[in-house]
């Protein structure tokens, strides 16, 4: 499977830009499948953004709850290589609004 191969390359330190894009998009899809909804927007620029988690629906402007982080941090969180508190404390993760602690939903895959 394409995802499995990209995960292996990422863990080996051999992932290229296309691997990062694939991993971010597929891991965001897994997050939405695990926590469907529209209350929180998770942004991983430049590769993707999704709305997830039950709650008030966001339709225009800046959402009330936003989580944003770089691709490598998102992948590490989703693979269980780093935990939410450590990611938050790193200063590379920005989370504002209600329901933005995703720790109960992670990891999405085990590395």
As for the CATH topology, it is Nonspecific Lipid-transfer Protein, Chain A
Output the number of helix runs. 4
User: What CATH architecture do you see?
Assistant: 2-Layer Sandwich
Structural class: alpha+beta
CATH class label:
Alpha Beta
Please tell me the total number of domains: 1
Radius of gyration: 13 Å
Query: What best-fitting shape do the alpha-carbon axes yield?
Result: globular
Number of strands: 4
* Unreliable runs: none
Order of helices and strands: HHEEEHHE
Strand content: 5-15%
Q: Major sheet: size, sense and barrel closure? A: 4 strands, mixed
Percent of residues in helices comes to 25-40%
Straight-line N-to-C gap: 15 Å
As laid out across the biggest beta sheet, the strand order is 2-1-3-4
């Amino acid at each position: 499977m394409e995802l499995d191969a990209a995960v292996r390359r990422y863990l080996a330190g051999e992932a290229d830009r296309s691997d990062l894009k694939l991993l971010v998009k597929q891991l965001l899809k897994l997050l939405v499948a695990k926590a469907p909804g529209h209350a929180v927007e998770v942004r991983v620029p430049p590769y993707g953004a999704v709305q997830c988690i039950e709650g008030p629906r966001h339709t225009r402007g800046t959402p009330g709850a936003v989580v944003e982080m770089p691709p490598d941090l998102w992948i590490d969180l989703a693979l269980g290589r780093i935990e939410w508190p450590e990611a938050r404390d790193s200063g590379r993760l920005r989370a504002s609004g209600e329901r933005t602690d995703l720790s109960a939903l992670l990891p999405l895959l085990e590395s």
